[in-house]
UniProtKB/TrEMBL annotation, chains A, B:
Subcellular location: Cytoplasm
Main location: cytoplasm
Function (record text): Part of the phosphoribosylformylglycinamidine synthase complex involved in the purines biosynthetic pathway. Catalyzes the ATP-dependent conversion of formylglycinamide ribonucleotide (FGAR) and glutamine to yield formylglycinamidine ribonucleotide (FGAM) and glutamate. The FGAM synthase complex is composed of three subunits. PurQ produces an ammonia molecule by converting glutamine to glutamate. PurL transfers the ammonia molecule to FGAR to form FGAM in an ATP-dependent manner.
UniProt pathway annotation: Purine metabolism; IMP biosynthesis via de novo pathway; 5-amino-1-(5-phospho-D-ribosyl)imidazole from N(2)-formyl-N(1)-(5-phospho-D-ribosyl)glycinamide: step 1/2
Gene responsible for this protein: purS
EC code(s) of this entry: 6.3.5.3
Family: Belongs to the PurS family.
Lineage of producing organism: Bacteria, Pseudomonadati, Pseudomonadota, Alphaproteobacteria, Acetobacterales
Entry protein name: Phosphoribosylformylglycinamidine synthase subunit PurS
Species: Granulibacter bethesdensis (strain ATCC BAA-1260 / CGDNIH1)
């Protein structure tokens, strides 16, 4: 759907992060790089994704359910990742 | 610094997103994939990164400045990306 068709889109923000206990090599690499750059006092680093979606759905609750459905079907690998959805009008 | 040395780490969450106007091919691909999966009413999709950091720094304001410094030096490409920092005790 083109942007023009969406006069007042609902904005959904889906944050996807690795589940606790799942190894995060990318996070480890960033942690080491930060220490190499001279930052001390850096503990665990975890990297995730944030997906900002414009939805034509204007009802916040239905928009939330749609975004959760999108997360389960595509945006997150629910075997190793968890997600949370925020709806912004 | 090992996790044990951090009894009460401060958690900083750095969210990195593309600046407005910067093309997001990944977002476009996700948008098409969502439509292919049968989701209608999907407008613009933007993908970003979220970096969760454990910092030994206990003062929230100094932790914020450190995280911002990390973002400018490593976590974000400030030419095409913007970032925001949230401090969680």
């Amino acid at each position: 759907m083109s942007d023009t068709a969406m006069s007042h889109p609902t904005k959904a923000v889906v944050t996807v992060t690795l589940k606790n206990g799942v190894l995060d090599p990318q996070g480890k690499a960033v942690g080491h790089a930060l220490q190499t750059l001279g930052f001390s006092g850096v503990g665990e680093v975890r990297i995730g994704r944030v997906i900002e979606l414009e939805l034509a759905e204007t009802d916040p609750e239905r928009a939330r359910q749609t975004a959760e459905d999108m997360a389960r079907k595509l945006l997150a690998n629910t075997v190793i990742e968890s997600f949370r959805v925020e709806i912004k009008s």
